[in-house]
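Duplicate of #3305? Posting structure anyway:
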């Protein structure tokens, strides 16, 4: 996954505007114009780095002459004490952009770090980790990029690029059969179709349709095994996705059932920021 530069610039400009407003009154009161400084981004804990382009653009929006030199790439592991990048240039611009740069870098690195833990937890199985739409408003692409850097695959970006029939759709339609009949009333849609099921009865119905994936919502490990047996019995090869109640403690057991995908909302909505500081010399 590659983010368009225009997207990064727009997001960063919005964040800078929010933070600086009419001006950085503290820096402008203390730091004379024209002073040059050098700073180092220092990892204060182990993790996976993401967001270097956001940090660089935060500085260069305020001063295009600032030099931002990364020592690693997005997706790389770091250990405590690792110098992630250096920044050199006009002190006022560096101090004014510091918090915005760090906010993006620590937040996105935190997501990449947690994602990597989930990916590592299923290593050796065929299961792929997926992200979800449980993202911070206006930061979805950035956060999905961070999960990608952590080793996950991206689920749908929004409501427009995949049909995902969920429980409320099924309830309003009057049942899973009615919902899927409506989806396929004019033939197979041009976008992928996934349907969420909450029990084996719904699953049996869903397996009769040419859906691209079936989500097993809040299934226990044993229920997942039963679902796979049912799929095999009916001679279907539709991929399954487990979702709901998946943690680092139980994800390995789910993966060992042979399920193809596991989606984890926590990698975006509950990731702890990676501890990174900017040390000025």
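Output from current build:
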């Amino acid at each position: 996954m590659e983010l368009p530069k225009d997207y990064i610039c727009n997001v960063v400009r919005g964040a800078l505007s929010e933070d600086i407003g009419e001006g950085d009154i503290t820096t402008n009161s203390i730091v004379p114009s024209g002073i040059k400084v050098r700073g180092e981004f220092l990892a204060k804990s182990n993790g996976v780095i993401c967001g270097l382009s956001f940090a660089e653009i935060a500085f260069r929006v305020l001063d295009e002459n600032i030099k931002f030199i990364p020592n690693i790439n997005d997706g790389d592991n770091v250990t405590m004490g690792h110098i992630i990048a250096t920044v050199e240039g006009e002190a006022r611009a560096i101090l004014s952009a510091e918090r915005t740069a760090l906010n993006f870098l620590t937040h996105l690195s935190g997501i990449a770090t947690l994602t990597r833990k989930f990916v590592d937890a299923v290593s050796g199985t065929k299961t792929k980790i997926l992200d979800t739409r449980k993202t911070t408003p206006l930061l979805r692409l950035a956060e999905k990029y961070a999960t990608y850097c952590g080793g996950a695959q991206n689920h749908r970006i929004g409501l427009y690029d995949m049909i995902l029939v969920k429980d409320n759709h099924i309830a309003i339609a009057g049942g899973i059969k009615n919902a899927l009949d409506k989806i396929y009333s004019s033939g197979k849609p041009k976008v992928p179709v996934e349907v969420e099921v909450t029990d084996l009865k719904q699953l049996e119905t869903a397996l009769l349709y040419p859906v691209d994936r079936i989500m097993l919502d809040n299934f226990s490990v044993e229920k997942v095994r039963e679902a796979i047996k049912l799929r095999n019995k009916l001679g279907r090869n539709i991929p399954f996705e487990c979702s709901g109640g998946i943690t680092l403690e139980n994800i390995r057991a789910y993966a060992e059932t042979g399920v193809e995908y596991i989606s984890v909302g926590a990698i975006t909505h509950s990731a702890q920021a990676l501890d990174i500081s900017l040390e000025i010399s």
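Confirmed duplicate; merging threads. Residues 155 and 251 are 18 Å apart (CA to CA). The two ends are 35 Å apart (CA to CA).
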